[in-house]
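Work Package 3 (structural annotation) set out to generate three-dimensional models for the target panel prioritized at the project kickoff. During this period the team completed the workflow that converts sequence records into discrete structure tokens, so that structures can be stored uniformly alongside our sequence database. As a representative example, we reproduce one entry of 387 residues exactly as it appears in the project archive.
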Amino acid sequence: MTYRRAAIPALAGGLLLTALLWWAGASAQALQLPGSTGVIGGRAAAELEHWLIPWSYDPPAALPLGAEVSGGTGDTAGTGGARYLALYATGMQIRFAAVFAFFVPVALLLIRRLPPVHGRMPATLLVVWAWGLVAGTLAVTVSAPWLIAADGHGSYRFLPQLASVISSGRQVLVVTALVSAAVTVGVARITAKGAGRIPQNIVPARAARLAATVGTAAVALSLVVLSYQPVAAALQTVSPDGGLFAEPGDLLRQWLLLGVWVSPAGLPLGDWLLHQAADVLLLVVVWWALRRLPALLTRTTVPAMAAGAVCATVLGLLASQLLRVATDGTGSLYGPLQPFAGIGGGVPAALTFGLVAGVAAAATLRLAVGRAETADAAAAERSAARP
């Protein structure tokens, strides 16, 4: 699939994702109306508003936005507050522009290397959905410093504040990214018509399994080793002395930990296995996706494998989180939305270790295929040399 044909759905999906997030943010204030609380309930309305506020141009009422801080010599407190409001608006503009900028290039790569034809449509839909979630998280990350500065306390515990901002707004991303992915793949299906024969990538099964195992091991490094309770506690409590970048524990947890792996001490084996079933599901999804990915790609390149591995890790996270929601049983206690509060978390860690897994899987696949071709060539020469 050519870049020109793949660019149309990528641009359409990026525009739609940005528009949906803007619309979701614009709807946040409507949840404060008495009619909204009367229809869906006060607890549910407050929960939805908390999810939508990170995408709203209207500053949260809880944030002072520096209104009490003077803007400098000769400035009134009101002028200083207006400047903080302008800083907040700038941060939101950067956030929405970054969503589009992060989504389009990788969506273009994924659609070109994984066009939605010949049985690939479900796979294309899933990877574009996962990448929409990653693009939104990256947009929140790059715009976070402006929003932290707009609060007027940017120099106080900056890294913990940054970690808190990064983890916000992810629930809305899951839904909006799915809708934009469906439209993107639908448009890609149309533009792929008449594009000619799509090349089929032939990958030896043994090489694909080996590459998937190596890539899954990289993800397991975060899920099992770094997320093991004593190791995670050490990462969480690391705190260099003083300075703006002190107390990086919260941020390290965001970027390095995919879960919390507990030891079976004090728990029956059956309960412990049930508790860790979601993590096992994550690894199974990642292995299966990496096993299938080389054969689905029209060309197995390192960028395509890296992007595909990131998406596979995000999909594994979503599957594990949905399993936890299904087995949690707290919906009746805290409302129907509370179990979904953790949906979409862990994306920064999935991005980090997904990239490592994709590069490792691509390198392993290349080596394994090269060795297989060398062995086949040697066997063919020996067969030809026989009288």
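The chain is about 70% helix and 0% strand.
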